[in-house]
Amino acid sequence: MHNFQENKKVVLDYYAALDAAPAGSVATVLHNFMAPDYSWFGMYPFNELDSAEDVAEEFWEPLLKSIRPIQRRPDVFMAGLNDIEPHGGEWVCCMGHLLGLFDHDWLGIPASGKMIFFRFVEFHEVSGGQISQTAHFFDIPALMRQSGINPFPPETGQWFITPGPRTHDGLLYAAQNPASSRKTMDLINRMIDDLTGSGMESPQDELARTWHEDMIWFGPAGIGATYTRERYQQQHQGPFRKGLGDIVFNGHICRFSEGRFGGFFGWPNLTMKTTGGFMGFPASDRTVDMRVVDIYRRDGQFLAENWIFIDLLYLFAQQDINILGRMQNILRT
Known about the structure:
Structural class: alpha+beta
Shape: globular
Strand content: 25-35%
Radius of gyration: 19 Å
Strand order of the largest sheet: 2-1-6-5-4-3
CATH architecture of the largest domain: Roll
Number of strands: 15
Distance between the termini: 60 Å
CATH topology of the largest domain: Nuclear Transport Factor 2, Chain: A
Order of helices and strands: HHEEHEEEEHHHEEHEEEEEEEHH
Largest sheet: 6 strands, mixed
CATH class of the largest domain: Alpha Beta
């Protein structure tokens, strides 16, 4: 019998300790919660780190020096059993924002001296009361936008600070009905089968099988959000398929659900070529990988809301397009 409540407590205790940690003490916090062979999967330019010390030194300490004091403002918190074999495992996911004062530059992004919302999602595998691995996605371009810099051409969707669920019920601190969780997982799996079976572009009649007519797709900064199935096709799916070709679905590392919420991440999810150009950048015949997270809310028989994280800096770095470097060029002009 899986006790996801114990796993949730491990992650909540970790967050409480991390968010209260004084400068220079993050490594100690991580040692208290992470397994000895802990591994961390982060977005570019951090990528894969294989020790708690490296995660503390390379990611958390510089971030917490730049953005203080931190308030963690979660919108979705859930736990469940990984539906992907052979990976398996019990996982906890948290999605939301870190709020703080952006007082010191980070990754060359100029500090605004103002309040910022740093969008994040984390998947933690918990085993034996310890966190054994973490996939940590964060929207770096959204942080750039809040500092007044946009390194991308105008979005096909709309960018803004991404809200949580319309129903305000994504924080699943209590245990959920397993039947509801299974219903959500089956719906997500059916949607994935439809999407991958149609070459990552679903016609309206196929979308109608699993998505609400008034669905909301909350994409990352650089792509933006879309509202309704029709505009989702026009403002994301259409440009995606026009700009990207030879798309291969690689599967996911973790996919689970709890109650009416669920999600997944891959490493990478997709392999493709930017044969038509993508997001305003030139076409290329290079093969590139795309790392993606999707979080969903089910409403009855359909998916109603979808929050997406895409490692855009990594996608373009594979094409020798340095988004952080472009930002510096913008700052110099």
